[in-house]
Amino acid sequence: MGPLREGVGTHPMAASDEVVLELAKSEEAALLSHLLELYLHDLSEVFPIDVGPDGRFGYDRLPLYFEEPGRRFPFVIRANGHPAGFALVTRGSPVTQDPTDLDMAEFFVVRRYRRSGVGRTAAFALWDRMPGHWIVRVSEGNRYGLPFWRKIIAEYTEGAFSARTLPGSPHPWLVLGFQSPRGEPRPGATGG
Ligand SMILES: CC(C)(COP(=O)(O)OP(=O)(O)OC[C@H]1O[C@@H](n2cnc3c(N)ncnc32)[C@H](O)[C@@H]1OP(=O)(O)O)[C@@H](O)C(=O)NCCC(=O)NCCS
Which CATH number fits domain 8-180: 3.20.20.80, 3.40.630.30, 3.40.50.280, 3.40.50.150? Predict the structure, then answer.
C-alpha cells in the first residue's frame, strides 16, 4: 500500500488509521529530542552507548537540523495524530562521495506502532517526497532495522538497489543504495 497523497497514507491496522510524515518545525525540537532518547535506548542494545549523568543519552546534532535547512531534514511521523516516530535525513552521506546523496541518518517508530506498517508507510512517503539517490546504513547487529530495511527497500525498488558491507564495530554495516521515486531509472543500475 503506497501513500494516498504526499506524506500521507494508511497502515493495515485499521482503515481509519492514518500515518502522516511532516517536516518538523523548530518548536518540535523538544518532541524530537524526547523521541531520540527512546531511539537511542533501543540502539544501546547494539552499540555500547551510555546515558549521561542527567540520565539522558542526548543527541548533539539535533540543533543542526533546524540550522541547516538545505542540508538536514528532520521529519516527525504521526499515527492517528499521535507522535509515532521520526526520520532524520542529511544531504550527503558519510559513506559516499556524492554530496547530493540523501542519507537516512536516523529512523524510528515507537513500540506502540511497530509491525503495523507505520515505518514502511513513512519511509515510502519520504522517498517519494525527496527524489534522489538514497543511502541507508544499518548495523548488521540491529535486529529491528536489518530485516526492516532489507524487506522494504527490496519492495520499494522492486529489487533495483545496491548492497555492500563496510567494516564496523561491534558489527559490520550493511549499506543499501537506491534511486527514488519508484520507477526512476538509476544511473548504472542493472535492475536486479
Ligand atoms: C526498524 C523500525 C523502524 C521498523 O518500524 P515498523 O513500523 O515496526 O516497521 P513495519 O511495520 O513497517 O515493517 C515492515 C516490514 O519490515 C519487516 N520488519 C520490521 N520490523 C521487523 C522486526 N523487528 N523483525 C523482523 N522483520 C521486521 C517485516 O517484514 C515487516 O512486515 P510485516 O510486519 O508485514 O512482516 C522499528 O522497529 C524501530 O524504530 N526500531 C528501533 C530503531 C531502529 O533500529 N531504527 C533503524 C535504524 S537503522
Answer: 3.40.630.30
